[in-house]
Specification:
Helix content: 25-40%
Strand order of the largest sheet: 1-4-3-2-5-6-8-7
Structural class: alpha/beta
Largest sheet: 8 strands, mixed
Strand content: 15-25%
């Protein structure tokens, strides 16, 4: 089959992000160069053996789209009994997180540069996660862009496959239409049920995107869902 025909017969995945580099500071670039070998993960072919990434084997939390890494670094500091794997597509944010990790000498955080859907699909074994965090993902507020929202039924089922029995999905957004969408998707998913209480990590630290939303007068929706046993 010629390349044109193959491309026509292969559907392109709908991405939940637009890949743009953004402003890259000198310190962020330096952090990528200096600290990626210690804290970065370059998955090879096949399932990633997460046990080899950390000094201590303990429950693993996946943070999808950690932004500038402020909240993730705080979580790692406050929960040394947990290991964290952050996934982000934007390199300036990765550089910022690596600065925080190195400054605080955190050994329970590792970072993947890539698409969370690909990471879940290709590199993580079923049942390897204790929790998944999706805090303030791109809301794609225009109706014609709603199909780009990360929280969709196939993705939620994918998350469910990677969570252990009783594992948690923590979601937060400051966009009302996205909150309604999340409620609808999770209510229709038999894999999850609403959790009572704050969940595995307790109090959620605030993020830059959350504070921006609050300044604009947005209300924050947050909910922890638990995978049914």
């Amino acid at each position: 089959m010629n390349p044109v025909a193959r491309r026509q017969n292969t559907p392109f995945p709908i991405r939940s992000y637009v890949l743009r580099e953004g402003r890259f500071t000198k310190s962020q670039r330096a952090a990528l160069k200096n600290y990626w070998p210690a804290y970065g993960v370059d998955p090879g072919p096949g399932t990633l053996d997460v046990r080899t990434l950390y000094a201590t084997t303990q429950p693993l939390v996946l943070d999808i789209g950690f932004g500038d890494g402020e909240a993730l670094a705080l979580l790692a500091q406050h929960h040394p009994q947990l290991n964290f794997l952050g996934v982000e597509v934007y390199r300036p944010g990765i550089g910022a997180l690596l600065q925080r990790i190195a400054s605080a000498r955190l050994e329970n955080v590792r970072v993947v540069h890539g698409d969370a859907m690909a990471v879940l699909d290709e590199y993580l074994a079923p049942g390897c996660l204790a929790a998944v965090l999706i805090w303030f993902p791109d809301p794609w507020p225009k109706r014609r862009h709603h199909k780009r929202r990360l929280v969709q039924p196939p993705f939620i089922h994918q998350v469910g496959e990677k969570l252990e029995s009783g594992g948690e999905l923590s979601v937060a957004t400051d966009w009302q239409s996205y909150a309604d969408h999340i409620r609808s998707v999770l209510a229709a998913c038999e894999v999850f049920e609403k959790a009572k209480g704050p969940g595995l990590i307790g109090q959620r630290p605030s993020t830059k995107f959350e504070r921006r939303g609050l300044r604009l007068g947005h209300r924050v929706f947050e909910q922890v869902y638990r995978k049914r046993g």
